[in-house]
């Protein structure tokens, strides 16, 4: 993966809950999110571990926010991660991206 704004940031991975349908799990899809990285919420929803903590941090995030990060399951990440701030890698944030960055003392894109 080439370096971009997102690979230096990671603030989104430490700001929001990441909930998604259980059909995205590895136990249900060969390219799904590893089940062990999630916690069940309802009969059909799961959440990425660490994202519901007082100081959220997704269990799949590696590195230091604002310096250099990577997603340990990038190719298998859930749909909310695919859909978040689609142009941030190009240096174009959105309101949610800006809020996440502000939480970590980073300026908006």
Characterise the protein shown here.
The chain has 109 residues and is an alpha+beta fold. It has helices spanning 5-8, 79-83, 95-103; strands at residues 19-21, 38-40, 45-48, 61-64, 68-71. The strands form 2 sheets. The protein has a 3-stranded antiparallel β-sheet, with no helix packed on it. The chain has a two-stranded antiparallel ribbon with strand order 4-5. Strand 4 and strand 5 (68-71) form a beta hairpin. It is globular.
Number of helices: 3
SSE order in H/E notation? Answer: HEEEEEHH
The beta-strand count equals 5
Task: Indicate the radius of gyration in whole angstroms.
Answer: 14 Å
Structural class call reads: alpha+beta
Distance between the termini: 20 Å
Globally, the shape reads globular
Query: Helical content, roughly?
Result: 10-25%
Mean pLDDT: 93
User: What proportion of the residues form beta strands (DSSP E)?
Assistant: 15-25%
Strand order of the largest sheet: 1-3-2
What's the story with the biggest beta sheet? 3 strands, antiparallel
Unreliable spans are none
Furnish the topology, listing elements before pairings.
Layout: H1 5-8, E1 19-21, E2 38-40, E3 45-48, E4 61-64, E5 68-71, H2 79-83, H3 95-103
Antiparallel strand pairs: 1-3, 2-3, 4-5
Provide keyphrases for this structure:
single chain; 109 residues; alpha+beta; three-stranded antiparallel β-sheet; two-stranded antiparallel sheet
Give a brief description:
It is built from three helices and five strands. The protein is α+β, with helices and mostly antiparallel strands and 109 residues long.
């Amino acid at each position: 993966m080439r370096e971009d704004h997102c690979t230096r940031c990671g603030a989104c991975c430490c700001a929001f809950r990441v909930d998604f349908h259980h059909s995205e799990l590895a136990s249900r899809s060969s390219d799904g999110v590893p089940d062990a990285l999630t916690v069940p919420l309802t009969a059909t929803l799961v959440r990425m571990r660490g994202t519901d903590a007082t100081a959220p941090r997704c269990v799949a995030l590696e590195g230091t926010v604002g310096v250099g990060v990577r997603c340990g399951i990038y190719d298998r990440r859930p749909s909310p991660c695919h859909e978040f701030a689609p142009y941030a890698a190009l240096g174009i944030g959105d309101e949610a991206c800006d809020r996440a960055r502000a939480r970590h003392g980073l300026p908006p894109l």
